[in-house]
Amino acid sequence: MTEDSRQSAVLDKDGIDALIALLAQDGRTVIGPTVRDEAIVLDEIGGGRDLPYGWGVELEAGRYRLQPRSDGAAFAHSAGPQSWKTYLHPQRERQWTTDLTDDGDLVFNEEDSAVPSYAFIGVRPCDLRAIAIQDRVLGGGPHTDTRYAARRRRAFLVVAECTEPGATCFCVSMGSGPAAGPGYDLALTEIVEPDSHRFLVRAGSDEGATVLARLPRAPADERTSEAARGLVEAAAGRMGRSMPPVNLRDLMRDTLHAERWNDVTARCLTCGNCTMACPTCFCTSVEDVTDLTGTHAERWRRWESCFDVEFTHLTSGPVRATPLSRYRQWLTHKVGTWHDQFDSTGCVGCGRCIVWCPTGIDITEEVHALHAERSASAAAPASAAAPAAPAPPAEGPA
Ligand code: SF4
Ligand code: SF4
After folding, report:
1. 277 lines ligand 1 (CB under 6 A)
2. CB 10 near ligand 1, within 6 Å
3. Model confidence over 169-187: pLDDT tens digits?
């Protein structure tokens, strides 16, 4: 077998089934997309039968609908309501418990540090980038989340390259898709032709190559590789949305006092849905609970949102008391100051915040509007230009 044929191959639908079975046999909890509650959600899957063969989605701002597909494709749908952070950085996680003994002492109990070994099937390229972003935030450095890091170390990632972008997708303008970037174990590209339903599979790690070598497969042929390349390139040309092609960090810095913030915050409910759906938002709070006897207490960590007025509550009250300050914090951090903090953007262009916003606020529309406002202001005669705004008070990370 040549080096190339060890690294890539062609699977059919039975091969995908065998992949799921093999990962489960190896003791992994296999998570993938499946149809439930009128949506394509992520859940534990028991085989290829659980994948959403024959289903796509119709997306728009504030709108999500399942759509049957006549071609029977499994991965021709864009990002759903959840992201992989549901598993790697769970919504609620107990930190420790404490019990009051008969002697009146408190005994603290650490949580079990064992974590599952996940295999994720059908990770979108934008979500692969989102995992890499969360790795930088949670997986290393002086404030490592040890359980996140342990889950990541044990996770096996099977990417599904995008061949059917949604109307709210803009990964091309964020440089995060539709082709898979580095970091996967296996990458699939699904090809559905009248006489053949197959998957080009490439290994991206030694572990991926080992798993691929254990599967029933055919050698990767030129026709399949060409078809896969063509489908991904065509998807890049069909993105539903885009960000303006400017330095977004500078744009956020230059528009802190733009009129557009008033416009968008007149529509924003500050519900925080966008932060819950976003695959890179990572903020948490802790809460302590006791039982009715008062002898047992637990500390839980849970997702928190920068849209919550209590999130920045200090002794004198919330730092970001207005919806404007909270929406602006979210957006300027996401595509602006995230660069200063983590050396990358915090947005991967998945479009979830657009789809799952109850009032249909569209991050790309807002950024385009800020860009237009800055351009108009730069083009205005100097005498008509507004006086320079004073520097805003510094706001911390989300
Ligand atoms: S932008 Fe939309 S989803 Fe986000 S807080 Fe405002 S209303 Fe909620
Ligand atoms: S900000 Fe919106 S489009 Fe960007 S990664 Fe988060 S949910 Fe996706």
Report:
1. no
2. no
3. 999 999 999 999 999 999 9
Instruction: Take atom 3 of ligand 1 and give the residue whose Cα is closest.
Output: 357
DSSP state of 42: E
**259 CA from centroid of ligand 2 (Å):** 23
Closest ligand by atom to 353 CA: 2
- What is the band of 351 on the pLDDT scale with cuts at 50, 70, 90? very high
Residue 126: nearest ligand to its CA?
2
Q: What would the pLDDT profile of 254-268 be if each residue is shown by its tens digit? A: 999 999 999 999 999
In contact, 256 and 332? CB cutoff 8 Å: yes
* pLDDT for the residue numbered 113: 83
**Structure tokens belonging to residue 201:** 């599979």
Calpha distance 351→166 (Å, rounded): 8
The token pair that represents 367 in the structure block:
């950024």
Substitution candidate for ligand 2 out of 64, 280, 361 with most atoms within 8 A of CB: 280
* Cα 257 to ligand 1 centre (Å): 20
| Residue (of 200, 201, 202, 195) closest to 223 by Cα position | 200
The pTM assigned to this predicted structure is: 0.92
Tokens matching residue 25: 């046999």
User: Which residue type sits at 311?
Assistant: F
- 3-state SS, one letter per residue, for 334-360: HHHHHHHHHCCCCCCCCCHHHHCCCCC
